[in-house]
Design goal:
Helix content is 56%, strand content 3%. It has 15 helices and 4 strands. The strands form 2 sheets. It has a two-stranded antiparallel ribbon. Helix 4 crosses helix 6. The chain is elongated.
């Protein structure tokens, strides 16, 4: 009888054990998981109001970490070690570890993203939710991927910390030269100081130096009415008046607003001044990268490759552009138009707080479009819904280069740049982009 009881108890214990035992399944990482992770970074950057140059750095390092992990397990792609300045080969996993490389790449991406932003808790909540799901699905697979992903993230972080960013945080603020009428001055309504005047000291990723793609100088400064410079100034004023007179039907105003991407817009209501939050130019092109990847049905490796190559081009473009901005230190149209033509004139877009030449959006757009064209091809039609979240409609483009051209001219329609800054700027970006495409081996032929 006692034997029967023991057998019965063991039988029911077995049933309970099997009922409680979790079903172990492989963890599948999809392209949408990476899109969501990048979107989360964008969301936090908007909340934290990072400047456009700093935002480009925040995109680049997490994508590079993810790419390096995945390229280690994919013979079709080359490591970036030895190609990006100062980057050494990432560590190998332990000999006895079976690694889910896609998962490790996503974990490394989130860890580095958290290190680069201010509102770490926003990334942590997102990460912890995913960690819980993965742990429940397959704890062993998750733990090995997490260990390796964090190991690589630390390796990339140590490389990142040598790019001179921390040193630039303590360098002197930009000094305004009020004696020289050609030099940049803070603009209304916030009259902010010039941002990131030392960004040319940041270590570039692929280009040889910040000055490698130094553009031709802008037209010689002059307020004489027959001078080339004054003609460009007057052109900004005349176009602004012409397009705003059309009212709501103005296509040029719509273009300017679509590509605004100014995270520093200040709004004044009575005695109250506050900032509206928007994406940066780099974030807009990262959004286009997501659109192109989805349209092309890119797999996880192809998606991470697209984000990485594009974010590297954007980051180097900002280093190159900011080098020129604070070299030429050119005054903005708004200041001169108010001084010499019309003291009540306001541009369609709010003037951002840094010197005029060359146009940052133009340089970045030229570089990003060149990188994306090298991946997805020319004549790649896409519908850009990046700005829908900010109340703007979808715009369609026949190619990345046509989108870049529109982004460039939008700055002139917006009243914040002269023609030379956009035309020479987009060329500067394309030249830089071609250099990156020609000198950075990613996908093997």
């Amino acid at each position: 009888m006692n034997r029967i009881k023991v057998i019965t108890v063991l039988f029911f214990i077995g049933i309970l054990f099997n009922a409680c035992k979790k079903e172990v399944k492989p963890i599948i990482v999809t392209p949408n998981d990476f899109h969501a992770a990048v979107d989360k970074v964008t969301e936090v950057m908007i909340h934290d109001i990072f400047s456009p140059p700093v935002a480009s750095r925040i995109y680049a390092y997490p994508n590079i970490a993810a790419y390096e992990i995945m390229a280690k397990n994919n013979n079709d792609y080359s490591s970036l070690s030895g190609q990006l300045h100062g980057l050494s080969e990432i560590p190998e996993p332990k000999n006895d570890q079976q690694i889910n490389y896609d998962l490790a790449a996503l974990i490394a991406h989130m860890d580095l993203s958290k290190r680069l932003i201010f509102s770490e808790d926003r990334i942590e909540r997102y990460r912890d939710s995913l960690y819980g799901t993965w742990r429940d699905r397959n704890e062993s697979e998750f733990n090995s991927a997490k260990e390796y992903g964090l190991l690589v993230a630390q390796h990339i972080s140590e490389w990142m910390d040598k790019d001179n960013y921390k040193q630039t945080r303590t360098m002197p603020k930009f000094s305004v030269d009020s004696e020289d009428p050609s030099r940049w001055q803070p603009t209304p309504p916030a009259y902010m100081s010039g941002i990131e005047p030392h960004w040319n000291k940041i270590r570039p990723f692929v280009i040889d130096s910040a000055s490698q793609f130094k553009p031709t100088p802008p037209p010689a400064f002059s307020v004489e009415k027959d001078s080339d410079f004054y003609k460009e100034l007057k052109e900004v004023y005349d176009i602004s008046n012409e397009i705003t007179a059309k009212g709501d039907t103005s296509e040029e105003v719509a273009i300017a607003q679509f590509w605004d991407c100014n995270p520093y817009v200040s709004v004044t209501r009575g005695h109250l001044m506050f900032a509206t939050k928007k994406i940066t130019p780099g974030a807009h092109w990262i959004g286009i990268t997501k659109i192109a990847s989805r349209k092309n049905n890119a797999d996880v490796m192809e998606t991470v490759h697209a984000y990485t190559k594009t974010s590297i081009a954007i980051a180097d473009a900002f280093i190159s552009c900011w080098d020129e901005k604070y070299r030429s230190n050119l005054i903005r149209p708004e200041t001169l138009i108010n001084q010499h033509i019309d003291d009540s004139w306001e541009p369609v877009l709010q003037t951002p707080p840094f010197p005029e030449y060359t146009s940052g959006h133009s340089v970045v757009s030229g570089a990003a479009a060149t990188a994306l064209t090298s991946i997805f091809g020319d004549d790649f039609h896409f519908n850009d819904d990046t700005e829908v979240a900010y109340g703007l409609p979808v715009r369609s483009f026949e190619s990345f280069n046509k989108a870049a051209d529109e982004a460039a001219i939008s700055r002139m329609y917006g009243g914040i740049h002269y023609r030379a800054a956009v035309e020479i700027g987009v060329k500067q970006g394309r030249d830089l982009g071609r250099f990156i495409v020609d000198n950075l081996e990613t996908k093997k032929e």
